[in-house]
Design goal:
This protein is an alpha+beta fold. It has one domain: Tetracycline Repressor, domain 2 (Orthogonal Bundle), CATH 1.10.357. About 35% of the residues lie in helices and about 15% in strands. The protein has helices at about 90-95, 105-110, 120, 125-145, 165-180, 180-190, 210-225; strands at about 10, 15-20, 25-30, 60, 80, 85, 145-150, 155, 195. Strand 2 (about 15-20) and strand 3 form a beta hairpin. The radius of gyration is 20 Å and the shape is globular.
Length: about 230
């Protein structure tokens, strides 16, 4: 016997749109697009993904299934930083894993294969950049090092403190924000919602891994600038 499911039911009221989210009724502020919380079937989803309906009241998932995905590091949001162009924050991030010149110890370490050049990774987006970075991380493990480079300087890659790597990622995200009007518009459109990632993360990661928190800090700065007291 096949059960025929009815489409999601909606009821508009003064302050909230009440929508059946699959596991119960949830309240969605009418000032935000309702599709940000539209339930997505669990069947067939990637293991890494957190679906939009996982958001708690007052939260929104930065899902790549809708326009909020532009806030992902994966998004094709080109920017120029210190005179060089990058295709995405992810490309900028993963590029730092790769050798920076022929005299870089990573370039001459025996037995290593680099599937791309540093410049090639800088022009990648989404999974292309992520997969290039995974290959780079494996090479760092083989070398037994925990540093990457930028402008010829070695920088610790994994740190609990907001060190130089954190500051570089924040600088890249600000460049993305400043140079892509749609990123700015989308970020401000989230109002005071708590932003949540659309993927599972490692336990207790460095601060720069928590890009959604970094966006909330930048959003607060934008809001203060646009609405000074």
């Amino acid at each position: 016997m096949r059960l025929r499911l009815s489409p999601p039911k909606k009821l508009s009221i003064a302050l909230f749109e009440v929508t059946f989210c699959g596991t119960g009724w949830c309240q969605v502020p009418t000032t935000f697009p309702a599709h940000w919380w539209t339930p997505v079937p669990e069947a067939g989803k990637p293991d890494w993904e957190i679906l939009p309906q996982a958001a708690k009241p007052g939260e929104v998932i930065l899902s790549k299934r809708n326009e909020l995905g532009i806030l992902s590091n994966f998004a094709a949001t080109p920017f120029t930083l210190r005179g060089k162009r990058y295709a995405s924050v992810e490309g900028f991030w993963q590029m730092m894993l790769y050798p920076e010149g022929q005299n870089d110890p990573r370039a001459v370490f025996p037995g290593l294969t680099w599937p791309h050049t540093r410049d090639q990774v800088a022009q990648m987006t989404a999974w292309d950049a992520k997969n290039a970075g995974a290959a780079g991380e494996e090479n760092l493990k083989k070398m037994g090092i925990d540093w990457v480079t930028f402008e010829g300087k070695r920088i610790r890659y994994w740190s609990k403190e907001k060190g130089e790597h954190y500051q570089l990622i924040a600088e890249a995200m600000r460049a993305k924000l400043d140079q892509n009007p749609e990123v700015r518009r989308t970020l401000l459109a989230t109002g005071n919602l708590t932003l949540r990632p659309d993927h599972y993360q490692e336990q207790d990661p460095p601060a720069e891994w928590l890009y959604f928190r970094m966006w909330m800090e930048m959003r607060a700065e934008l809001q203060r600038r646009e609405n000074p007291k």
